[in-house]
């Protein structure tokens, strides 16, 4: 197989972990006889420094011409004072929008070998296997107006939660399709007792459910969900929700595994290319220190193999290698028990490669 | 002391727990020589059934003429099909707005005797003492428009996150004032990398901080906060945030204590009367079964004694009595270990009264 992969390392630890994913993909290519070529593009703070914009046209072009995209992370304190429209994060948001990446898939699973690094009791997280499907190109993130206003002579501000019915429909439908291949349960999360958008969301979920008689739908209010996510995470199979709720709940769900450094994600559009990125950010405090956990990025690459390229066996191999390394007790500092020995980013990458 | 208290039991377990708070307040009155009189009003589903509206004018009037308000809970499946504007929850939202209850205080603390009922490890929750201050009368809850719209011939929907500067200012200032009497740290939570309203919020927090040189302010993104709340809850002292984020995070924080059934709240306005309610809802599944945990409501009454009436000693006594009962191993089912014996709502009320 011949595939071209756009690599956007971005800022901070993004660079360090992206390197890991590329090396692992190269190793997979060699072992299984695939040709993966990598084309690098700039995004985020690095791009602001060079081009004055967090997402240059060349990068968008590069992504559109590729079969899939790997992204590290964007942002850092260096760009905290730049005007709002040229923040590093705007590059990521614009890329999601330009490529129409409407669904962000965030799987959370239980790693027996990491049970001790979660703040939750083992009984609570054991066997957790949840997939959060977050709407990614609508809602408060993109609604207009989003600006300062004057109201009766008072300083005020407005953001807008806007959704078209079709935007809700497609992401909810995708969640049902994914549930079909899993445990056949969809939990739709909203705030229907307060928001009109949530009432529409709930109606559409009911409408979609009619086409999936084999999948069980239930509704949960977002405040309750934030509690259930840690109180009783095993009750969830596929979770689907709008952009902002999904942002909050999926970061919260990272405590189930014990570290953001373990969690991959895939962002899907209707016709591709898809984008794969770890859930964690650019982690300025540890950037450049060879300390970051590269596994979220490596597991994102595994998702790419499976979802974009249909390479199930290859994806399984990467995941198996990651598990083998974890079972051997090898840890970056984020997943090591306090005070116990831990390894570096580059060493962790080498360890995974070695057992691949 | 002579005080008139409006009691709005509402729906479901609201009635059962409100009864408990009233009995405890009566006992406190007798013991300390205060005259508490109770005036009952209707709100929520019960009020819809009787008056066709979730908040009749008489109830608003009653509240305005009282020194403080006790509220049970509103809502239930019976009213799920009523039109959006006459839902039980609308009664509560309207009451908050009409009485200008702009700040909702939600303390979360560690109960040694309940450590086993939390899904979190004891090391994580030990000594947690956090106060969430949630803005309660603005943001997505009240912004207009909040309606279905047509856009280029497509069905769409819009909700509005609107804040005036003064609304942000007063609640953030209150958080700093409260921090002064605690550990002198305020964590302000927003989504400043995406929302214009959050950028304004952050600016105002910085502005307020200048008047409180003795209090340390830090900012945290809401997604990160949802993680830190369970990963490292001890890092928080006072947390302040806007309405929707506060709704989500404060329900999440209930896992630290192990049950929503333990958590009280106070809602403050500029000139009173203040409203006291448990964080939990009407819990239709256990309503009428004499199973609900009355402690959140009883602890809300303790907050009333302290905050509205300045009766510090009396408030401490109620809290001490609750702790004594818990230390004696008496439990309603929500805080009992699985399969172990538990008591009823009315018995729990009696137990607290007995040690008062
Ligand atoms: C960086 C930020 C804009 C982004 C988001 O809020 O979507 C991040 O938190 C994420 O979840 O990918
Ligand atoms: C009942 C509902 C409208 C309410 C809210 O969202 O504010 C509740 O969840 C709360 O937190 O008091």
Automatic annotation (TrEMBL), chains A, B:
Binding positions (Mg(2+)): 223, 247, 251
Binding annotation for substrate: 96, 106, 134, 223
Superkingdom as given in the UniProt entry: Bacteria
Entry annotated with the keyword NAD: yes
Subcellular location: Cytoplasm
Cofactor-binding details, from the entry: Binds 1 Mg(2+) or Mn(2+) ion per subunit.
Cofactor: Mg(2+); Mn(2+)
InterPro entries on file: IsoCit/isopropylmalate_DH_CS (IPR019818), IsoPropMal-DH-like_dom (IPR024084), Isopropylmalate_DH (IPR004429)
Main location: cytoplasm
Site residues, Important for catalysis: 141, 191
Family: Belongs to the isocitrate and isopropylmalate dehydrogenases family. LeuB type 1 subfamily.
Name this polypeptide is given: 3-isopropylmalate dehydrogenase
Annotated source species: Cytobacillus purgationiresistens
């Amino acid at each position: 197989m011949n595939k071209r992969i756009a690599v956007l390392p971005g800022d901070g630890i993004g660079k360090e972990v992206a390197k890991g994913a590329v090396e692992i993909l190269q190793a997979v290519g060699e072992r299984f006889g695939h040709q993966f070529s990598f084309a690098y593009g700039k995004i985020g703070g690095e791009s602001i420094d060079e081009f004055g914009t967090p997402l240059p046209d060349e990068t968008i072009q590069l992504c559109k011409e590729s079969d899939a995209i790997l992204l590290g992370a964007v942002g850092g304190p260096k760009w905290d004072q730049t005007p709002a429209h040229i923040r590093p994060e705007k590059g990521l948001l614009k890329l999601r929008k330009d490529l129409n990446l409407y669904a962000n898939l965030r799987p959370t699973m239980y790693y027996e070998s990491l049970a001790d690094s979660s703040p939750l009791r083992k009984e609570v997280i054991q066997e957790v296997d949840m997939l959060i499907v977050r709407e990614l190109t609508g809602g408060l993130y993109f609604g207009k107006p989003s600006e300062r206003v004057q109201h009766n002579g008072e300083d005020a501000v407005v953001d807008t939660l806007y959704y078209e019915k079709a935007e809700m429909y497609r992401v909810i439908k995708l969640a049902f399709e994914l549930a079909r291949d899993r445990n056949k349960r969809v939990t739709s999360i909203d705030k229907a007792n307060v928001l009109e958008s949530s009432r529409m969301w709930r109606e559409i979920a009911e409408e979609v459910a009619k086409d999936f008689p084999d999948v069980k739908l239930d509704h949960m209010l977002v405040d309750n969900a934030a509690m259930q996510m840690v109180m009783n995470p095993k009750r969830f199979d596929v979770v689907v929700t709008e952009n902002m709720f999904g942002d909050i709940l999926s970061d919260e769900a990272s405590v189930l595994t014990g570290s953001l450094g373990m969690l991959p994600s895939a962002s899907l559009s209707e016709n591709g290319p898809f984008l794969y990125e770890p859930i964690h950010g650019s982690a300025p405090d540890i950037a450049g220190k060879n300390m970051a956990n590269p596994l979220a990025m490596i597991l994102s690459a595994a998702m790419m193999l499976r979802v974009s390229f249909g390479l199930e066996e290859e994806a399984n191999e990467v995941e198996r290698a990651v598990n083998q390394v974890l079972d051997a007790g090898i840890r970056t500092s984020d997943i090591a028990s306090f005070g116990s020995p831990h390894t570096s980013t580059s060493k962790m990458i080498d360890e995974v490669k070695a057992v691949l």
